[in-house]
Prior knowledge:
It is a single chain. The protein is α+β, with helices and mostly antiparallel strands. The chain is 52% helix and 9% strand. Strand 1 and strand 2 form a beta hairpin. It has 20 helices and ten strands.
Amino acid sequence: MSNTTIGLLAYADDLALLGNNLDTVKQNCRKLINVAGKCGLKINDKKTEYVIIGRRSREYRQGEFMETDHHKFKRTSHFKYLGSIITQDSDLKMEMDTRILMGNRCYFGLGSMFSSKILSTKLKIQLYMTLIRPVVLYGSETWTLRKVEETRLAVFERKILRRIYGPCIDSETGEWRIRHNDELKNLFQKPDIISEINRRRLMWAGHAWRKEGSFIKAVIKENPTGKRPLGRPRLWDGLEGCNPQEEEDQRNNNIFMIYGAPPPPVHAINRGIGFEGLGTVFAGLMGSGNGTNTFGENVGAIGVTKIGSRRVIQYASALMLIQGVVNKFGAVFIIIPEPIVGGMFCIMFGMIAAFGLSALQYVQLNSSRNLYIIGFSMFFSLVLPKWLIAHPNAIQTGNEILDSVLTVICSTSILVGGLIGCFLDNTIPGTSEERGLIAWGNEMNLTNEPTTGEETSTYDFPVGMNTLRKMKWTYSVPFLPTYRPKKN
């Protein structure tokens, strides 16, 4: 821009290298490593990551690395620089989630003051304007808001104003009710949060325009050649960066993320469910007395070892076959001391519980609806099985088989909690955002596109993929890796 290129953003020890392509970033990184080495400084590989930013950047996959001068840097989908989050697609959603989350923390931290009858309403408004709103609007001068972001910010502000002003008596029914949006606007008598963002953007633009020799002013005055890409303008476009981060992101939210695999595509989920059913049917035909189904303890094993491989399943299957044929071999596992088994169970079930609780990050935990569903589901799933143990003949339907089935179902804590939670979540009214459906859908973005001959996937067959791709009929089989659903 104006024959000027910025390759380094530096603020104290928070550095970010920029480049139009990966080779430029590597070159700048080598220069930084050499200069830092002369001063006795070293690059921390674990705290340094890189991100590819652009509308047409290749899909992010966990486990990708960039190697430079014996240094290995992990690729990430986003990073935080000077308090603002920059994502690979320059989307504002993650930044908005973070800002509102931090605003909610301030809001709940001041909850006792907002509920106090000693403090005046004017003082409460001043607390909001000086302690909460600046936290939410940090860096808002560069935001490109859509209607959905404006709505979220407005809802956040009205929630606080309703807490400050309190309910009112309806003139028609004579009952207490929350204040309407127009009533809050008339009482507030100040620019709302969206107007404040627009004011800040204009102030920042004027400040940048008045400063002589400013690079930002050069960007505003520049008349770029070519055609602008489709879509609304975004914060960053067409850059690749390397950012040293001081905090590690916690992304162990799903099983596939625990061991670094991409989200499972539709055909892999279909295949897993289908073979689970076939395994159960085969176990019943052989009279083994057990079903072959999803085993929750595997979550703990994967969480501890960070390994989820076909080889593990194959070796485990071979061991089980040997135990079923050679009794002495199975006796080796029986003589394992009970303290060792107990310690293993503590770790394993602890990981299972932590994995289940990690899914709550997608829902709004400040919602009384969600808190009721979570609390009731967890407590009832612990109480009902204990009660059935004390009263084994409590279920009497007149059919012994049905009684046994219901007793087994109601004696399983995980199943009871899941059924109660699913039932309450689908019957108690709540928005999609409140229930976490939007955030979960973004995280579990199931793909349907099969891989090509030049690509490989974790969920493809180990052999025979080229043969399957030659058979057109396999594109219609839902559990094969070549499955291509029909587009409406």
